[in-house]
Amino acid sequence: MLNDIGFFALAIAFGLAVYACVAALYGGWKARTQWVESARNASILIFPLLTVSVIILVYALYRLDFSLAYVNDVSSRAMSPFLRVTALWGGQNGSLLFWAWIMAGFVMTVLLRRWEPDRELMPYVIFTAVLTTGFFVGVTLFIANPFQRLWHVLGDTELTRAVFRPANAMAYIPEDGGGLNPLLRHFGMIGHPPTTYLGFTGFVIPFAYAIAALITGQSRGDKWIRATRRWTLVAWLFLSIGLVLGGRWAYDVLGWGGFWGWDPVENAMLLPWLTGTAFLHSVMMTEKRGMLKKWNMVLIILTYSLALFGTFITRTGVVSSVHAFAQSALGPAFFVFIGVTFIGSVWLLIERWDTLKSDHELESFFSREAAFLLQNMLFLAIAFAVFWGTVFPLISELVTGTKITVGPPYFKKVTGPLFFALLLLMGIAPLFAWRKQAVERLGKAIRYPFALSVVLAVLWGYAYRAHPAAYLGLWLVVFVTLAILWEFGKGIKARTRRGENVWTALQKLIGRNHRRYGGYIIHLGVVMIALGFIGDSFLKQETQGTVAAGESLQLGAYSLRFDNLGYYAGSDGREVLEATTSLFKDGQFVRTLNPRRDYFVVQRQPVTIPGVYSTAAEDVYVLLVGWEEIGLGASTFKMYINPLINWAWVGGLMLIVGTLIAAWGPMSGQREVSYALRRPTARPQPAAGD
Amino acid sequence: MRIRKLMLAVLVFAASLLAVGVVYAQQETPNTPTDNEVNEIAKKLYCPVCPNTPLDVCETQACQDWRALIKQQLAEGWTEEEILNYFVVQYGERVLAEPQRRGFTSLVWVLPVTAAALGAVVVWQVVKSWQAARLPVQNDLMEIPDIDPEVRARVEQELRALEEEL
User: Fold this and answer.
1) Of A155, A93, A100, the residue nearest A131 (C-alpha)
2) Residue A506 three-state SS
3) How many other β-carbons are positioned within 10 Å of the β-carbon of residue B166?
4) How far is B108 from chain A (nearest CA, A)?
5) What's B48's domain CATH number?
6) What CA–CA distance (Å, rounded) separates A442 from A483?
7) pTM, whole model, 2 decimals?
8) Which of A323, A361, A404, A419 is the best mutation test for B, with the most CBs of B within 10 A?
9) DSSP class per residue in A37-67
10) Residue B91 lies in a domain
11) What is the DSSP string of A564-588?
12) Most buried of A162, A268, B129, B160 (most Cβ within 10 A)?
């Protein structure tokens, strides 16, 4: 009964979405306010209806209602209530419902908050945003319905999944379900999908506004950008958090000693992040200089299409195997929808190309405009390389019939130099002035950070001289960090001279221009993440060996003594094989590490959980990869030293803090006016700044 | 699919038996390859049944057998190149982590590099066109020629307000 309500709420939500699209388009076309208002009301209602569906599904997962096929797939008696609830996004059908629900939430919020100021854009914002929401609701309803039940049709050997009883069928309710994929039982994987979905779906708001601006011909102004600036930041923030959590999960659970494996699913998520980051930067050009209007449109269309593409890749598994594409109607449906969205947007953009002329021009290659453009191009080049590497196996199989693998070496080699250039630009570009940067002035601005970074690289980086790429990377990290800190230092110094103490000065500095300094903090976070990547790519050490109890494995300054191997039954239906080992550094006992192997009996899946000793400088990461029969006591361990890896997590946190600061504070009203007045040409001096 | 997997397993098993036989035949060879030497090569390979997991970290039975095979081959004195070639011949190009740089596959390398180079040219051209479109009269003082008096009044008012605030 309850499940029927969930299903009908979903069905009504779909009907409303279809209605809202038609009504909004008609209302916008004929300029009929009532139609648009009606479309708005219908769109707002989608979220509460989907909330009903989501709550009912979560409740079914919680009380283990195995009459639902989805519950049977992802929940089981052995799972804790908390895990059962998170199983909402632990499988295909639930994920899609969850996706649609979050997007409907975004749509509702934007329609409640931004109705009056953006009245004329609204019909098309509704149309665009609800079209996508409706697509996902439709997919959930018709192709991957989480309210399907299991039926046993007379004469069939396999069970049928359907919402309503097929002819000659009897309901089939299993005793226990399959349970959540063991690999997903980790805080990173519990937090990763919701944040990722928030990021993916959040980009629908700037996208819908962009399309509305194109349709209404208001794209010449930057109203759509101002209206959606904060939404873009929120979407970007969640996508970033999703990436960090995903990396942490991989590090803790997948057992290969790293956090980023250039897997198609990871890449699919990185792609909209790359173009989204480019978009965040290029809108600044439009806001402050009235330039790059066409480019913004290109970037937001790309970002949104890539977000859909990311969902497509993760949900259909098409890249690892072409055959996954045709296994359900999901692949073709997604493919068509992405195609329609992309081609439709691009066609609209071409139609409106002439309305997107730039206002200002510039004087020199040494200008912030040129730096922004170069930065955008670098982001796009990286995105293209990642995209190409991700889809190439598919293309190769389709064109030549040969299956190939594009693994991490490709991605590292191709994107490495581009990331290096991007980091360098990140260090110096914020110091460039708009229009024209005098080279001497730039030299003055960076000479101290530069000199200091060279000195530090010689002193401290000397230890890494065996790895030229790492050496160069470490220098760059130091240089960029110093260049950013220098900017903070300059501002603080100017304020302390007027008698403020350092702390107030810093607060006021950030408060006066939260976007700029928030941006710098994000940059610092990125530098730290880069540090983690440098450690992971160039400085990692590993060894593997089989040792008897009492014997040790050596790696670098560390030695790992194997003490014993224990076996016990763990929670959530797992059997745990746990090794006790003692870690020594230079002969001194550091701590006990317990790498283990969890075997999930029902799913017949092993999960390797590392034993990790973490410091700011490095992690010692130990895996139990093999063992003799208990009693013989010889076990095989894989031991990694992962230098600098923790900086990636610290950097992730820093990035979140920076984004919050940048999104904080007044974004409209007075502030906007002063931005509009601060045309660079009216400024008395061409110094650095915004 | 299952039959193929089974065949694969049988093949691998047969191959390892063969290799074991060879090793026993030349008992004297003193060098037993370490796990590290095996992993060094396994890192560059992907088995066809475990998507997206490099051979050195994959825990499935098939991958363990492959690593055992690599160990045997190393013990027999095969070079890294020979071992990699062996797997390519047996299972196709897809076992290589790093795509090859010849034939159709070379496109995976060529296109991103071309795109990046093209991007650089585009940036150059665009910035050039921006410069060319600049107003011909250059005002070094950067004074705005005819600023709306209303706007100017507001600017000054804002500046005053800012000063007071500081």
Assistant:
1) A100
2) helix
3) 9
4) 6
5) 1.10.8.640
6) 12
7) 0.86
8) A404
9) HHHHHHHHHHHHHHHHHHHHHHHHHHTT-TT
10) yes
11) EEEEEEETTTEEEEEEEEEEEETTE
12) A268
Residue B113 is assigned to a structural domain of this protein: no
For A290-361, where are the alpha helices, taking DSSP H only? 293-316, 324-327, 330-351
Nearest 5°: the CA angle B99, B104, B107 is: 70
Q: How far apart are CA B158 and CA A166, in angstroms?
A: 73
Structural contact between residues A270 and A309, judged by C-beta atoms closer than 8 angstroms = no
Q: What is the DSSP annotation of B2-68?
A: HHHHHHHHHHHHHHHHHHHHHHHHTTT--PPPPHHHHHHHHTTBB-TTSTT-BTTT--SHHHHHHHH
Interface A-B, measured as beta-carbon pairs within 8 A, has a size of 144
Does residue B6 lie in a domain region? no
Please judge whether A256 and B53 are an interchain contact, meaning their C-beta atoms are less than 8 angstroms apart.
yes
Task: Report the amino acid identity of residue A315.
Answer: R
Instruction: With cut-offs at 50, 70 and 90, classify the pLDDT of residue A320.
Output: low
What is the C-alpha separation between A590 and A641, in angstroms, rounded?
Answer: 15
Q: From residue A88, how far is each of A59, A197, A311, A655 by CA, in Å?
A: 10, 13, 16, 28
pLDDT tens by residue, A149-185: 988 888 888 888 888 888 888 888 888 888 887 877 7
Q: What is the dihedral of CA A148, A153, A156, A160, to 10 degrees?
A: 0
**Amino acid residing at A163:** V
Residue A690 is predicted with a pLDDT of 39
Q: How many domains does chain B have?
A: 1
Q: What is the DSSP letter of A551?
A: -
Put simply, whether A512 touches B (Cβ < 8 Å) is no
Place of tokens 């700029």: A516
Token duo for residue A56: 């009912």
Torsion of CA A372, A377, A383, A384, to 10 degrees: 170
Name the residue among A660, A661, A659, A642 with its Cα closest to residue A247. Answer: A642
Q: What is the largest CA-CA distance in chain A?
A: 88
Is-contact A561 A581, C-beta < 8 A?
A: yes
**Token couple for A552:** 């040790």
Query: Cα–Cα–Cα angle for B21, B25, B28, nearest 5°?
Result: 130
Q: Is residue B87 part of a domain?
A: yes
Residue A239 in contact with residue A193, Cβ under 8 Å? no
Q: How far is A16 from chain B (nearest CA, A)?
A: 41
**DSSP string spanning B115-166?**
HHHHHHHHHHHHHHHHHHTS-SS--TT---TT--HHHHHHHHHHHHHHHHH-
Neighbours of B142 (CB within 10 A): 15
Residue to test with chain B: of A254, A322, A405, A641, most B Cβ within 10 A: A405
DSSP code of B104? G
In terms of residue numbers, what domain contains B59? 22-104
**B42-55 b/e (C-beta count within 10 Å ≥ 16 → b):** bbbbbbbbbbbbbb
Rounded to whole angstroms, the maximal C-alpha distance in chain B is 99
**Residue A354 structure tokens:** 């002439």
A273-277, A414-418, A623-627, B115-119: the lowest-pLDDT one: A623-627
Q: Are A229 and A675 in contact (CB under 8 A)?
A: no
Cβ burial, residue A645 (10 Å; 0-12/13-18/19+): buried
- In the prediction, which pLDDT does A678 show? 38
Q: Which chain A positions have a beta carbon within 8 Å of B116's beta carbon?
A: 381, 384-385, 418
Q: Over the stretch A497-539, which tens digit does the pLDDT of each residue have?
A: 877 788 888 888 888 888 889 999 999 999 999 999 999 888 8
Sign of CA dihedral A458, A462, A466, A468: negative
Q: What is d(CA B76, CA B31) in angstroms, rounded to the nearest whole number? A: 9
Given B95, B123, B144, which is nearest A681 (Cβ)? B144
